[in-house]
Design a protein that fits this description.
Length: about 375
């Protein structure tokens, strides 16, 4: 993507571009200084790209267009607004790797897009504002990924998102506290991943939420309002090192989670006292850094059907897995440190061992030392 972008011959600009490239590929975190430096270079780039464009012919899209994808093109804010204002039938808009875009269109243009249901914005590094986003009265799906200059607080009123939203996904962005306090009565999935800025999320107003996925948010300290999400079924809490578990404890009787993904065993212990924990049927332990899986609360989830360990540093598993009398599936994916198989319940019908060389070797058919522990399982899957 970066190789296709025309660049001015400027050492400072090239330096900040490299910083952003490393951030985009996960090689190093992006700090505020890098973001501001990139923004200061933006005007220089605009001038470079457009300095020789004079009296360019106008390209008019048909007003019957329903899907539009713009990728790695040099379109300005004004050009995008001019392009969109006639597309009243547009239902799906995808913007990717547009380095010249700083803001989505104004209220007048947004209100013309009455049929737009899905908006995806990816790697638009210079995007600063979502414009009058709430003017998209039919928008159901919004995905914003790696827009590090975006300041979601820059809205014209408190209603940041359209009330019609059903699925909202934010990744690699800076988000403010209290962002989700606006009315979104139809929102059923909220995903926040690798975002900075927000120390607390207030989600009590999102009463239709069924899926809540929070991953890799190092600043997040508190989640408020979980007890009001009576429709919540799928909860993900992965790599949230500063999250305090207190707000996750109390939920009303009748609230049931069916799928839980978590990385902290301490958090798992806290959640085991939650009313909603008893009906969990699918539990994923992902990116757990503890070497020993010690959890006495397994008896609190008698309905558990699937248990999967993914990308964990765990070396030792307890024999307390035997208490999971309803367990049907047990999976180990990319857990190279596990060196022994515990005693397993007779109820298991499927076991998956993938990218676990030691575990695979000791469970080798017939002559592996731990083969007798899995011999009774009808379906066994081994992958490198």
């Amino acid at each position: 993507m970066l190789h296709d972008i025309p660049l001015p011959k400027n050492n400072e600009y090239s330096k900040y571009l490299e910083t952003f490239r490393r951030g985009a590929e996960g090689e190093q975190p992006l700090d505020e200084h890098a973001i501001q430096a990139w923004w200061r270079c933006h005007q220089q780039r605009i001038n470079f790209v457009y300095r020789e464009i004079v009296n360019a012919p106008e390209f008019i899209l048909p007003c019957s267009l329903t899907n539009l994808v713009l990728t790695a093109c040099n379109i300005t804010d004004g050009a995008l607004s001019h392009c969109l204002k006639r597309l009243t039938a547009l239902s799906d808009l995808h913007l990717e790797a547009i380095m010249t875009l700083t803001s989505l269109p104004s209220e007048h243009v947004m209100r013309q897009l009455k049929s737009l249901k899905a908006l995806t914005i990816i790697h638009c590094w210079c995007l600063r504002s979502l414009g009058f986003l709430q003017g998209l009265v039919s928008l159901e799906i919004l995905v914003v990924t790696f827009c590090p200059c975006l300041d979601i607080k820059h809205t014209r009123d408190d209603t940041t998102f359209p009330t019609s939203l059903q699925c909202l996904s934010l990744h690699y962005c800076v988000i403010p506290d209290g962002l989700f306090t606006c009315d979104m009565p139809y929102l059923y999935q909220l995903e926040v991943g690798t975002c900075r800025g927000s120390k607390f999320l207030s989600i009590g107003m999102l009463t239709s939420l069924r899926n809540l996925l929070l991953r890799n948010c190092p600043d997040l300290f508190k989640v408020e309002g979980l007890q009001f999400l009576s429709s919540l079924e799928y909860l993900v809490l992965i790599n949230l090192p500063n999250l305090q578990a207190g707000s996750l404890l109390e939920t009303p009787v009748g609230l049931r989670w069916y799928r839980l993904e978590i990385s902290s065993l301490e958090m798992l212990k806290v959640l085991s006292s939650n009313n909603a924990f008893a009906d969990v049927k699918r539990l994923f332990i992902q990116n757990c850094q503890e070497e020993t899986f010690t959890f006495e609360g397994l008896s609190h989830i008698p309905s558990l059907r699937q248990l999967t360990f993914v990308d964990c540093k765990i070396k030792v598993l307890p024999n307390s897995l035997m208490v999971l009398s309803s367990l049907e599936y047990l999976g180990f994916i990319d857990c190279p440190e596990i060196s022994s198989m515990p005693q397993l319940p007779e109820s298991i019908t499927d076991i998956m061992i993938e990218k676990c060389p030691v575990l695979r070797e000791i469970c080798r058919a017939f002559d592996g030392p731990d083969w007798p522990k899995i011999a009774h399982i009808p379906y066994k899957y081994f992958k490198d």
